[in-house]
Each structure stands twice: as C-alpha cells, then as structure tokens.
Design a protein that fits this description.
The chain is mainly beta. It has helices at residues 293-296, 305-310; strands at 2-6, 10-14, 30-32, 50-52, 70-72, 90-92, 110-112, 130-132, 150-152, 170-172, 190-192, 210-212, 230-232, 250-252, 270-272, 281-289, 298-302, 317-327. It has a 15-stranded mixed sheet with strand order 1-2-3-4-5-6-7-8-9-10-11-12-13-14-15. It has a three-stranded antiparallel sheet with strand order 17-16-18. The chain is elongated. Residues 281-331 have low confidence and may be disordered.
Amino acid sequence: MYYKLFNDTKIYIFYNINHLDTLNKSNIKVLNCCYNQLTELQNLPINLNSLYCHNNQLTQLPKLPDSLIELYCNNNQLTELPQLPDNLKYLYCSINELTELPQLPDNLKKLDCAHNQLTELPQLPDNLIELICGNNQLIQLPELPDSLKYFHCSYNQLTELPKLPINLIELHCPYNQLTKLSPLPINLKFLYCFNNKLTELPQLPDSLKRLYCYTNKLTKLPELPHNLIILYCNNNELTELSPLSHKLKYLYCYDNILTQLPQLPNNLKAIRCYNNCKNLHKYIIHCKNIKNYKKYNKYRYINTLNELLNYTIKNYYYFKIIKYYEKNKYN
C-alpha cells in the first residue's frame, strides 16, 4: 500500500491496492481511496468528513462516522447501505446493486442513486436540492420537497409524476411511460420529457429555455415561451406550431404532419423539418459565412422542404428566412 498525507488531515490512496490498512488517526478528515481494487473498508477515522471510495469492488460499507458530510461510493457492488449519519449532505451511490435506500438524513442536499435496482424511494428530506434517480425500476415517487431544483428520473417505469416543487429549475423525465405532466413551476428553465406517451403539455412557464418533447403523441403545443432557445418537437403528430420565440436558435420539428411553419426568427441557427406534408412552402435562405463572406455571400435557393430541413447551418453561419417564395410544386 502507498499513501500520502497532506497537512496531517487528508489522506489519498494511490495505485491498484486491494487492502486498506486500519486507519485510526482521529485527525484524518478526508479519505480518498477511489479507483482501486478494494473489496472492503474497516474502521474509518472517527472524525472523517469526506469519504471517496468510488470505483472499487466493495460489496458493503462499514459503520459510517457521525461526522461524515460527503459519501461517494458509486461504481461498486453494494447491495445495501449502512445507516446514514445525520450530518450527511452529499450522497453519491449510483451504479451499484441497491434494491432499497435507508432513511435519508434531514440535512441531505444532493442524492444520486441512479443505475441501481430501486423500486421505490424513501421519504425525501426537506432540504434536498438535487435528486438523480434515473435508470432504476421506479413505478412511483414520493412527495418532492419544495427545496428541489434539479430532478432527473429518466429510464424508469413511471406513469405519472408527483406535484413539482415551485423552485424546480431542471426536469429530466424521458424514457418513462408518462401520459401527462403535472403543472410546471414558474422558474423552470429546462424540460426534457421525450420518449414518453404524452398527448399534451401543460402551460409552459416563460422562464423555459429548452424544451425537448420529441417522440411522444403530441397533436399540438401550448403557447411557446418568449425565452425559448431550443425546441425539439420531432416525431410527434403535430399539424401546426405555435408562434416561435424571437430568441429561438434550434428548431427540430421533423417527422410530424405539419403543413406550414410559423415565421422563423432571425437568430435561428439550425432547423430540421423533413418528413412532413408536401404542401409546405419553398423558402429562400440567405447564408453568409462570417469567416469567408466573399465566397459564401449569396442567396441559396431551397427547392423542397425536405432539403431545407436537412440543411443545418453550422455555428459560423447565420441565416434568416427572407420570405415565403412560392408554393411547393407538389401543391
């Protein structure tokens, strides 16, 4: 075994070790033994604040000291966790073989329990800010605390979500079996709800910047927020789009049954709308390459909508739709 002690309070373990000698120094605050071949830990320092034991071969953990604030035990072979100390604020136990979690401490702020075999979660603490529980076997969720700002529950078997907290900023719930969403919080900025069974969306808050709702069964969209920058609504059953935000930069609306597009904003960088109805209009796109404007400063004529939506402008292009030119020849 090789270790290095810093300021007599931190210890870092290096190299591919498979055994950790008993540590009984009361002054050790941080223990980092990640990325080794450890199968067990014993007798942790009694005043330990941070334990980094991820990416080992641990099947269980010892009794955790009451002073522990951070626990990183992800990427192991754990089937259960010991009782969690009251002072714990950060728990990262993803990519294990956990089927349940113990009671969560009241002070817990971040919980990442993704990629396990969980079928349910315990009651969530009132101070929780971030919850990542994707890639499990969850069929329902407990009540979410109002403190929650970041919530990831993708790749589960959820058919509905609980009431969403008022302070929520990010919601990631793709790859479930959701048929509807709860009312969205007024401060929500990022909504990822693709690959579900949604037939409609609730009212979208004006704070929303990114909306990924593709691969659902949507027949229409609600009014789009003024701050929206990214809209992925492809692979639905949309017949029309709501007026677009003037801030919109990316629009993916292919694989729908659209017959026309709304006015496209000047800031748009990329658009894909192929595999829609044939009676869409032609467009004239004005493209200018900022780095080499003499070569590329010209009008580009797009003959079909499919060609338009396959034509993605690179980052150093800007373009704007000059006007509807004439109806498609298939009309």
